[in-house]
Design goal:
By secondary structure, this protein is mainly alpha-helical. The protein is built from 19 helices and two strands. It has a two-stranded parallel ribbon with strand order 1-2. The two termini are about 30 Å apart.
Length: about 525
């Protein structure tokens, strides 16, 4: 059995996901445009040292840039795009497909997509640089390097997700792994800012030494062979390619050892369960959170709050927000730019609402219950936003405290918190209609980072647009804070709260009316 059926299956699933859905087609086209921009921009960046004929810059940029690219292949899906589960190994559990054929087919199918194509084109700039600096021999070495590097990216991404598949189906281990993975993934951006700040203050000899060390690791080895060949170190080319192939072989072996468990989805029940005392409260009181009214709003808010606390994918979103919110301003301060920490904190306020960008997709066909019971659209929006705010607002307060205390300005905490609330409210006003207009189904899997087929980057674009819009819409408030001077310390919190609440109220009205008009379409969108 060849791998061609896997390729045709991947293309057919993608095509069927777009058929008859103009919104998805538009998002896919926009995603393709952004992938093209990334490919062209990456090519120009990696080709720049060759155009300038600067070998030292090539020795720094290529291994470090390639290492960041490989880390992005591993962790960026956990943050924004998700892991494409169109060809989930569990779907082949009942089919007589040999393991070797399944591995080859899934690998080739992973290469059929915009991320792989954009990565290949972007790293083609390394071949251009190698050709300018060392001629045809260096160009061939660089070409072998980028091909082997792309294969290593795919092997690393797929083997990690497959290895965690069984563990993530167990409740306790799934929650632990989700938290750890979300912390690691969310730390990448702040770590890069911290690294850039440290490199900015370091001498170039130290940076060159770091790049050389990274070039001998699996993260940087495939991207640095062209520079080695151009510099006359031909002996290093086969050694680095051997490192890449050896690591890829180990990853494929690891993948082959875990893929059958991923197909079966087996999980152990664990040890004996601890007995708990019976709850003597009335059934309604057990469902409602303390302090909420005993009506439909209280019931819906309590349900959503429990989902945010217990459901793996939602909890991963909250963990990511907390890590980014705390460490992004801190990394900016310690990286040598403390004046930019406040601005980065505002960005955190714009990121916070993104957890609701596909809020109906978490439920899937279960949303039919709300539709059948006639939950009004505005009540739906208010309850979901309130449950999300129960977890998000304390995180924003922590961000304001960490940002201003670390900057030595504790008196600005209240005003900064008001700005964060304003950004959060504006972000909700933009995200809530998007969650109705651009809803899409989540895959039927217990993995917290899985994403249905059809272009993960394209599905993330409306959310990224809402984040950008929230940041821009908060600019008038920032200008007011600058003009008011010391008075802003006293009025920043109430003004920010009023600004965010007013924006949220308008967005909730719009989203509620959209839900009332598009309930059947919304159910079909998240159930497909």
């Amino acid at each position: 059995m060849s791998v061609l059926p896997f390729v045709r299956l991947k293309l057919r699933i993608t095509r069927n996901g777009l058929r008859g859905r103009p919104a998805r087609i538009a998002m896919f086209v926009v995603g393709a445009v952004f992938a093209g921009l990334f490919a062209v921009g990456g090519y120009l960046i990696f080709a720049l040292p060759g155009l300038l004929e600067h070998s030292r810059s090539a020795g720094i940029l290529l291994p470090l840039g390639g290492a960041l690219l490989m880390l992005a292949w591993t962790f960026m899906p956990l943050l924004f795009f998700g892991v494409d589960s169109a060809l989930d190994p569990a779907q082949f559990a009942l089919l007589p497909v040999p393991r070797r054929t399944l591995l080859a087919g899934l690998s080739v199918a992973a290469l059929i997509g915009l991320p792989a194509l954009a990565t290949l084109v972007a790293t083609g700039g390394m071949v251009h640089t190698a050709a300018r600096l060392g001629g045809p021999v260096a160009a061939v070495a660089a070409l072998l390097g980028i091909v082997s590097g792309l294969l290593l990216c795919v092997a690393l991404s797929r083997s990690v997700t497959s290895a965690f598949a069984t563990a993530l189906r167990s409740r306790r281990s799934r929650d632990t792994a989700t938290i750890l993975l979300a912390v690691v993934a969310a730390s990448l951006g702040p770590a890069q800012l911290l690294l850039l700040g440290l490199l900015d203050r370091a001498d170039w000899d130290t940076v060159t030494m770091i790049a050389q060390v990274v070039g001998w690791t699996p993260l940087g080895a495939p991207w640095s062979v062209g520079v080695d060949a151009a510099s006359g170190r031909l002996w290093a080319v086969p050694l680095k390619l051997l490192i890449v192939l050896a690591v890829a072989g180990v990853l494929v072996w690891w993948w082959s050892r875990t893929i059958e468990q991923a197909m079966l989805g087996a999980s152990t029940a664990g040890g004996r369960r601890a007995t708990t005392a019976p709850d003597t409260r009335r059934p309604v009181e057990r469902l409602l959170l303390r302090g909420l009214p005993r009506n439909r709003f209280g019931a819906l808010t309590s349900r959503e709050a429990r989902y945010w606390w217990r459901e793996t994918r939602r909890r991963a979103t909250l963990v990511t927000l907390g890590v980014v919110g705390v460490f992004l301003p801190l990394s900016s301060a310690f990286g040598g730019a403390p004046e930019g920490a406040g601005g980065l904190a505002v960005v955190v306020g714009a990121i916070a609402p993104l957890g609701l960008a596909n809020q109906f997709g978490y439920e899937g066909s279960a949303y039919a219950t709300n539709m059948a019971t006639g939950v009004p659209g505005r009540l739906e929006v208010y309850s979901r936003a309130a449950a999300h705010a129960l977890f998000t607002v304390p995180i924003l307060l922590l961000v304001a405290l960490v940002t201003e205390v670390s900057a030595g300005k504790p008196e600005v905490v209240a005003a900064q918190f008001g700005t964060l609330l304003a950004t959060y409210g504006v972000g909700l006003a933009l995200v809530l209609p998007i969650s109705v207009w651009a809803a899409y189904p989540q895959p039927d899997t217990s993995g917290p980072f899985a994403l249905s087929s059809g272009g993960g980057a394209a599905k993330a674009l409306p959310s990224l647009g809402a984040m950008l819009g929230a940041s821009i819409a908060t600019v008038p408030l920032l200008i007011a804070g600058f003009l008011l001077g010391p008075a802003w310390l006293w009025v920043g919190l109430p003004l920010g709260l009023a600004y965010g609440a007013g924006a949220f109220w308008l967005g909730a009205i719009l989203a509620g009316r959209m839900i009332d008009r598009r309930m059947p379409e919304l159910l079909a969108a998240v159930s497909a």
